[in-house]
Amino acid sequence: MARGVMRASDGGRLDVVAISAIGGSLPEAGDEGLSSSRPIFNDYRNRGMTIALDRHTMTACLADMTFDQTVRSGRPFAGFPAGRDVVMRCWVAIALPPLLAVTLGLSGCPTTIPSPFVRTVAITLANPAGSAPSLTQSFVADLTLFPDASSMNWEFGDGSQVRGISPANGQRITHDYRDNGNFTVKVYVFNRQAMLGQGELAITVKGPNHAPTASFAASPGAGPRTFSFDASASSDSDGSIASFSWDFGDFSGIGSGQAVEHTYLSSGSFTVTLTVTDDQGATGRTTRIVTANIPPTADFTFQSAGAEAPDLLNVSFDGSASSDSDGSIASFSWDFGDSTPAGSGATPQHTYGIQGIYDVTLTVTDNFGATATKMQSLNLKGTLPFISGITPSNGVVDTTVSISDLAGGNFVAGATVRLTRSGQTDINATGVNVVTDSKITCSFDLTGAQLGDWNVIVRNPDLHEATLTAGFRVVTPDRVRLTTNKGDIVLQMDAAHAPGTVTNFLRYVDASKFDDIVFHRVPKNPSQVVFVIQAGAFKSLGAGANPRLEEVEGFDSINGEPHNGLSNVRGTIAMALRGQDVNSASNQWYINTIDNTNLDNGPPPFTVFGKVIEGLSVVDAIAAVATANNVPVMTLQGPATFNDVPVDDVTIIMARRE
């Protein structure tokens, strides 16, 4: 920066008198031939020097004049009185053309110094008069003072720009904004050597207004018939919501605010209307029906037909003590606690299958849909002994089986336990231990016992007995009967060749995991011959259901036992695998309907662990059923489709040790 003293010549030219440095260096006058008689514009124009008036040395000068004139390329600056000294400051601004901008206030001293010191280009909006709000904006640059302009740059304030456009095309320009907002538009004007001027204009863009979206949630409030309404989910895509108006549907007046609470004076269904208004006056509206109601009260009594079974198990229930203070009870629903279908009506009767303690629940619904429940425990144990189950429920012939839980009630110390079967000698339990009045442990020696179902009997010392009919089954160590809706199939396990696989299969049988399972695949080989029937892991959801089948969870997978001397020939049973993993068998298995010795080696090799000894004709009947492809199923991994699925379900009703 430099300070200089200049004098207006007789011709009105502003000549250099002296220049001194201010906070920086200035080239020596001799470097450019600087003298007091030569215009400063000629001497420093190639260095891009800009000169602006800082202050006037005269105490009173040009009090009645204001200058705003630019001189370029050494043109004389006219208007200063001859012989008057003026103190100047000079800034070197590379890449700017030499300009002189002078502004004098009423006192003759400068009021502003432009920055940068270039001519300002005026920008005006040129949108059509009376046009609707729009994201499209038009601008005009005033190029009156720039007759030699050759190009222009526009910046629209939203990251978009146009560069190097000719004045013919760029003096008036249109731009499409993507969003509403405040933007600063800038224009730059150039000739072929340098920038001549620049300008900017701050604008606010608002496109066509979009109506707001009204939305609200309703939730029960703190008191009876009171609701809390929350409209915070309402929105306005191009502005903000200015107001919320609530009509609660009960002629109580209009509410306001984003979140409100309202109490209805009577019960009933009411249509609540929310109207939102945005910052430009557009509105959005939505409605929701709420039911104001005082919930009912549930209550009931019960009475058994007798003190002991079987009369004890016949129970009458009465829910007429239930009430509704502002309406009426519309329905009664009863859960009797024994996994039977729900009951209905105010005074149902129910017969239980066995003595025990049951949690009974009554649910009442009023005329407005509100509900109430009540649960009571029902003690139907009586005083006589009863049996509800036995674990394990089977034992292998010619072995001794330990019973870990003979469950029931009213057992008394000194009770005895035995197995009975028509035409057979009773099998008396040994080591009987009445652990509690509801649990007994004992053992049975099954040496020479007849295969099949046996009754379990507990006798108390007072000679009262309890019987669990066909509650225990004497079985072979390695035989299973599959009872299907096509007939029975008896399987002989081969634990000698596949001990781990047989143990796994019997584990599913003993846990009733194969009950209600369907044969889900009946596939054909390349010769179009059904070669296996496959089951173990899917239950049917019914004809026409989507998905049709649903996979059930199995136990952990087991290690395969292939190459064990058994082959995949007709009538044998083998474990199915997942992919190529020989150790992925779990609950899926198949029965070979033809010889499939290629499956012995795979890859992967499949483990054979038994064979059909009865019911091979049933196997053939299953193989002959009609099948369908692309059947929707739900696997444990998610939705899928299966081919070769029987059109009509082939179901394993029950799988039991034989």
Descriptive notes:
By secondary structure, this protein is mostly beta strands. It folds into six domains: 2-117, no CATH class; 120-205, Immunoglobulins (Immunoglobulin-like), CATH 2.60.40; 217-292, Immunoglobulins (Immunoglobulin-like), CATH 2.60.40; 301-379, Immunoglobulins (Immunoglobulin-like, Sandwich); 386-475, Sandwich (Immunoglobulin-like); 479-657, Cyclophilin, CATH 2.40.100.10. Strands 39-50-37-38-45-43-44-40 form an eight-stranded antiparallel β-sheet. Strands 2-1-4-3-5 form a five-stranded mixed β-sheet. A five-stranded mixed β-sheet has the order 6-13-12-9-10. The longest helix has 12 residues, at 499-510. It is flat. The model is unreliable at 1-116 (pLDDT under 50).
Oligomerization: single chain
Number of strands: 50
Going by helix content, strand content and strand pairing, the class is mainly beta
Which whole number gives the mean pLDDT?
84
End-to-end Cα distance, whole Å, is 111 Å
Shape: flat
What's the topology here?
Layout: E1 2-8, E2 14-21, H1 29-32, H2 40-44, E3 49-56, E4 85-92, E5 100-101, E6 119-120, E7 123-125, E8 136-141, E9 151-155, E10 161-165, H3 167-170, E11 172-176, E12 181-190, E13 195-205, E14 217-220, E15 226-230, E16 241-247, E17 254-256, E18 259-263, E19 268-278, E20 283-292, E21 301-304, E22 314-318, E23 329-335, E24 343-344, E25 349-351, E26 357-366, E27 371-379, E28 386-391, E29 394-396, E30 400-409, E31 416-420, E32 427-428, E33 430-436, E34 439-445, E35 452-459, E36 465-475, E37 479-484, E38 487-493, H4 499-510, E39 517-518, E40 532-535, E41 538-540, E42 549-551, E43 572-575, E44 589-592, E45 608-614, H5 616-623, E46 627-628, E47 631-635, E48 638-642, E49 645-646, E50 651-657
Parallel strand pairs: 3-5, 6-13, 29-36, 42-47
Antiparallel strand pairs: 1-2, 1-4, 3-4, 7-8, 8-11, 9-10, 9-12, 12-13, 14-15, 15-18, 16-17, 16-19, 19-20, 21-22, 22-25, 23-24, 23-26, 26-27, 28-30, 30-34, 31-32, 31-35, 33-34, 35-36, 37-38, 37-50, 38-45, 39-50, 40-44, 41-42, 43-44, 43-45, 46-49, 47-48
